[in-house]
Specification:
By secondary structure, the chain is mainly alpha-helical. It is about 50% helix and about 10% strand. It has a three-stranded antiparallel beta sheet with strand order 4-5-6, with no helix packed on it.
Length: about 270
């Protein structure tokens, strides 16, 4: 089993540490850092800090388990800085969705806590980048591909949110986290609704792909804009240049031969 990536590890440790502090001073932390509806109890920092608070041990456990299971792979694809940006964007979009729903329904003010908005955004990214990865559910014990799992989960959350079933769970915040994640990825890809001029944001590069089995002479296909390559010889997936921008494309060594030319949209 590969080691836990650094940012995922930091996020899990931070959530656990805050929960321990919450057990000692729950009323103070909930009052200051949980997400309250727009009004006397609201503060701007709550748009982020609410995600580090949790309502119970089970709430914390399942969120951190999902972050461990799915966030590790997404961090390896995105890289630390982009993954942090993505996670916090999902947390923020989940908070905005929750505030909008609370304002439109006129329900009594209550605090929202939990990393579920960020976790649901990570789930969406996992389904987009590893759509055929099989996920085994606990209840019921049914295996399904990641893309189907996320679609089914999203539909269930929408149904529960619209019908008001399972009160006390911020279903629309979960959907808001998924929506924020989808829009972020679409923006990075330059796709609808953020279509950008090809001549302005695209350039041809020729990075060297070498799979972890050492097949540096095999043709590699490009999976997405992060230049994650799949070796046609052995099927291994590698990510040789995941921190890409216009200025820092790695230059191949003099004796290396680029295996494919692709378009960078970052």
């Amino acid at each position: 089993m590969p080691p836990l990536p650094p940012l995922t590890k930091i996020l899990i440790f931070a959530n656990v540490a805050v929960f321990i502090a919450e057990m000692a001073a729950e009323e103070l932390l909930i009052g200051l850092f949980a997400l309250w509806p727009i009004g006397p109890g609201f503060a701007p920092w709550q748009l982020i800090t609410y995600s580090f608070l949790h309502g119970s041990v089970l709430h914390l456990f399942f969120n951190m388990l999902a972050l461990y299971m799915f966030g590790s792979d997404i961090e390896r694809v995105f890289g630390e800085r982009r993954y942090l940006m993505y996670y916090l964007t999902c947390v923020l979009s989940a908070a905005l969705a929750q505030l909008l729903v609370a304002a439109s329904t006129g329900s009594p003010p209550y605090p929202t806590v939990g990393a579920s908005g960020g976790v649901f955004g990570v789930l969406l990214a996992f389904a987009l980048y590893f759509p055929r990865r099989i996920i085994m559910l606990v209840i019921p014990p049914v295996p399904m591909p990641a893309w189907l799992f996320v679609v089914v989960y999203g539909v269930i959350e929408l149904y529960l949110g619209v019908t008001g079933t399972q009160a006390g769970v911020a279903h629309f915040a979960h959907l808001g986290g998924m929506l924020g994640g989808l829009l972020t990825i679409q923006y990075w890809r330059g796709r609808w609704p953020f279509t950008r001029p090809r001549w302005l944001f695209a350039r041809s590069v020729s990075p060297l792909f070498v799979c972890s089995a050492g097949h540096n002479a095999e043709l590699v296909e490009v999976i997405d804009i992060f230049h994650v390559g799949r070796c046609r010889h052995c099927g291994l997936v590698d990510e040789p240049c995941r921190h890409l921008c216009f200025a820092d494309h790695p230059k191949p060594a003099k004796d290396s031969v680029p295996l494919i030319t692709l378009i960078c949209r970052l």
